[in-house]
Design a protein that fits this description.
Blueprint (H helix, E strand, L loop, with lengths): L1 H18 L4 E3 L19 E2 L6 E3 L9 E5 L16 E6 L5 E9 L6 E9 L13 E10 L2 E11 L9 E7 L12 E9 L5 E12 L12
Antiparallel strand pairs: 1-12, 2-4, 3-6, 4-5, 5-12, 6-11, 7-10, 7-12, 8-9, 8-11
């Protein structure tokens, strides 16, 4: 009788745990909404530098493909209505342009990860939506020595994106296993252009969430 009660209790606990929402935690990303360096909105309105990020720019001399820009005033025809803060990042559409950041946090065994980025397109110089379509890759990686090794990526195509409103796109990495090569390695975040020169992506509000590991709380039943 006691054994039957214990088994029933275990089943009830398992049902409760399965029905409970998964807990998650935000992982800090430096300059995640590209508010630094501060751009004078009354000046040129853009600056070819992004604090906290490694800029990989095919224009090595002028750095014209990576930087931050100030959102236009509310009510302007090109104002981005759902920008996070006052500034966003721009990224040239040509393959080879990218933003990368190695985080202080590490991939924890038993956790899964979701990267989310707000993406839009320039009103004056949008990425090409004609074949071949320009794309933007969201990437989570780790480093093997000094070399980045991609774990997963999600490609965003230029077609269907808006000038005045960002759309959120997400990349998911399943639960990290003990034998995964990236287990306990520093988390790397990358945003990479893949396409032709001449266009620009608008990028904002980079977020990374991690599920919390769930301890094994199943009671031991003695025979």
């Amino acid at each position: 009788m006691l054994r039957g009660v214990m088994r029933l209790s275990v089943l009830i606990l398992m049902f409760v745990w399965a029905a409970a929402p998964v807990k998650s935690a935000s992982i800090p990303i430096e300059n995640a909404s590209f508010e630094s360096p501060v751009v004078d909105p009354n000046g040129f309105g853009a600056f070819p530098m992004i604090d906290g990020w490694t800029e990989i720019d095919v224009d090595a001399l002028g750095s014209t493909n990576t930087g931050v820009f100030a959102n236009t005033a509310e009510g302007s025809e090109d104002h981005i209505v759902n920008a996070d803060g006052d500034q966003l990042a721009f990224l040239g559409s040509a393959s080879g342009n990218a933003l990368e950041q190695d985080l202080a946090s590490r991939y924890k065994v038993g956790c899964d990860y979701r990267l989310t980025v707000g993406v839009g397109i320039s009103g004056r110089f949008p990425p090409s939506s004609q074949t071949p379509v320009d794309n933007l890759d969201l990437v989570l990686y780790y480093r093997d020595g000094n070399e980045p090794v991609d774990i997963a990526s999600e490609s965003v195509e230029a077609g269907g994106l808006w000038v005045t409103q960002l759309q959120d796109f997400s990349l998911y990495v399943p639960t990290v296993a003990p034998d995964d090569a990236w287990a306990d390695k520093a988390i790397g975040v990358a945003i990479r252009a893949g396409g032709q020169a001449g266009g620009f992506w608008d990028i904002d509000n980079v977020r990374l969430a991690r599920s919390l590991p769930i301890a094994d709380l199943t009671p031991t039943v003695k025979e």
